[in-house]
Amino acid sequence: MSQEDYDLLLRCLNREVAAEYLMYRRYAPKMFAICLRYAGNEMEAEDILQNGFLRLFTHLHQFRFKGSLEGWIRKIFVTTAINYYRMYFKFRREDEFSTALKDATITPEILSAISTQELLDMIHSLPPGYRTIFNMYVIEEYNHKEIAGMLGISVGTSKSQLHRAKSAVRQMIEKRGL
Amino acid sequence: MLEKDPIEDKFRSAFADREQEPPARVWENLDKALHAGPGPAGFWTRIADYFLFHGLHPVFYITLGSVAIGLVAITVYLGPMRHYVIRGHAFAGEKRLCRGTAELFKVSDKTLPWDSVGHYSSAIIDNYGHFQFSRVRNGKYLLRTSPEKNSDAASCYLSTWFDRHERSDSADLIIVERGDINADARLIPK
């Protein structure tokens, strides 16, 4: 942890508004990108971002000054995003993509032609349960045991939801490549 | 060795270090939420937050709470709020009195006994001569037992103050302090 981060953290713990703003400016762009992946749309992402920062500033004293501050903050935002959708969806069965889940053949050319915005749109079009597990496994690189623990579901559910999410993404990529 | 999924790699690399500037209104809302003055509910929330998260170690509060609960329990158990039982049997001669009434009078310490006696509670004497007063608080009491009206015992025995006294001013006090009292009453023959 850098001395700069350490000083900023101490000032935030003293509830200095300027320091809080500085902390926000430093981490908001990265955290907003995370929120956008977990959210269904931009408005929801803003809500999650705001809730995440509120949670961050009110629980800052729980940071033990060990390990990466950014990693700790990132985990707060992932948890906030999970909680945001847990309230609404409770990870019930989502059958929108449950039919015709065949693995499509996707060439590297098709993949390389897809822009980041298109990938984000694909994530957004997934139902919240699939989207959350897809984000956690594929991008955050949590394993199924960790995902199951954080979401309060079984490892089997995590695996099956990820499989369905990936199949749905494959379908979307295949359609785009045609 | 597990084969790498090119789709996963594509997503991972696309979003690994992605940044996007949020709209200015997010900070404006956040600033309001963080720095608004505490309302009546907010005030207590902050007090609770301070003690829970900025104060001493949680073990201290758990210990403090346990001690407080212990003190309340001891106070209730030993203190003036504690209730006791006065029970006993009424005897008419050598036999137990079959039905009657037992009356308990509370005696104040402040004045002379005969000026300070007040009715406290009544109980029925059952067929086996047993009576009981539950929920009696610390204090000094007088007990009067009487046979049932128009019974055989009523024709032979007087209403009697504990312990074998005809008048209340000479009766013995039952002192309730820290425990239940057993007070057998014997009626005085006419």
Query: What's the tally of helices of chain B?
Result: 5
Low-confidence stretches of chain A: none
CATH-level-2 architecture of the largest domain in chain A: Orthogonal Bundle
Query: Which term fits the overall shape of chain A?
Result: elongated
Shape of chain B: rod-shaped
The CATH homologous superfamily of the largest domain in chain B corresponds to Immunoglobulins
Summarize the biggest pleated sheet of chain A: none
Residue-averaged pLDDT of chain A, rounded?
84
Give the CATH superfamily of the largest domain in chain A. RNA polymerase sigma factor, region 2, helix turn helix motif
Q: What does the oligomeric state look like here?
A: heterodimer
**Average pLDDT metric of chain B:** 82
Percent of residues in helices of chain B: 25-40%
Quick structural gist:
The complex is a heterodimer of chains A (178) and B (190). Chain A has helices at residues 3-13, 17-38, 42-58, 69-89, 108-112, 116-124, 128-139, 144-151, 155-177.
Describe the fold and architecture:
By secondary structure, chain A is mostly helical. Chain A has helices at 3-13, 17-38, 42-58, 69-89, 108-112, 116-124, 128-139, 144-151, 155-177. Chain A folds into 2 domains: 3-89, Orthogonal Bundle (Rna Polymerase Sigma Factor, Chain: A), CATH 1.10.1740.10; 108-177, Winged helix-like DNA-binding domain superfamily/Winged helix DNA-binding domain (Arc Repressor Mutant, subunit A). The longest helix of chain A is centred in the last third of the chain and has 23 residues, at 155-177. By secondary structure, chain B is α+β, with helices and mostly antiparallel strands. Chain B has 5 helices and 10 strands. The mean pLDDT of chain B is 82. Chain A binds chain B through residues 17, 20-21, 24, 28-30, 32-33, 36-37, 46, 49-50, 53-54, 57-58, 61-62, 106, 108, 111, 114, 116, 119, 123, 138-139, 141, 166, 169-170, 173, and chain B through 5-8, 10-12, 14-23, 25-27, 29-31, 33-35, 49, 53-54.
